[in-house]
Amino acid sequence: MTEVEQKEAFERGASAAKTALDGATRPLMIQDECGLNETQNAESMGWNSICASDENQALWKKEHERIAQNRKYFEDGCLCLQEGLIEKKGSDISNISAVIYYESACKCSRNYKQQ
Ligand SMILES: [Zn+2]
Q1: How far away, in angstroms, is 93 Cα from ligand 1 center?
Q2: Which of 28, 48, 84, 112 has a Cα-to-Cα distance from 106 of 20 to 30 A?
Q3: pLDDT tens digits, residue range 59-95?
Q4: Distance from the alpha carbon of residue 87 to the mean position of ligand 1, in angstroms
């Protein structure tokens, strides 16, 4: 792969990430830079350069706050939890893991996923 090709692939990745970030409400996820081939790796590096931007970091901050709120929402009002039908996740479990579990396990009206 030439340097020019590498630069072009990087720019393609960065451009795709900018498009995805435009008007996004959820943050962009980092892409694997050790993928199938050099072209893809260079595109991922371009994409990741945008992931590191202040704009995307601000979206991550919001996302973490949203997840923490969702956990509290379940733990404050889920009947399945209160009746011991599902397990209450402890503080050693990350907010995202707890929320994923509650979203899949909760069967009461609290679950915004299954309605
Ligand atoms: Zn529930």
Answers
A1: 18
A2: 28
A3: 999 999 999 999 999 999 999 999 999 999 999 999 9
A4: 11
Q: What is the pLDDT of residues 11-55, one digit of tens each?
A: 999 999 999 999 999 999 999 999 889 999 999 999 999 999 999
Write a three-state SS string for 5-40.
HHHHHHHHHHHHHHHHHCCCCCCCCCCCCCCCCHHH
Q: In terms of Cα–Cα distance, which of 30, 37, 52, 40 is closest to 10?
A: 40
Centre of ligand 1 to C-alpha 25, Å, is: 26
What is the 102 CA–ligand 1 centroid distance (Å)? 7
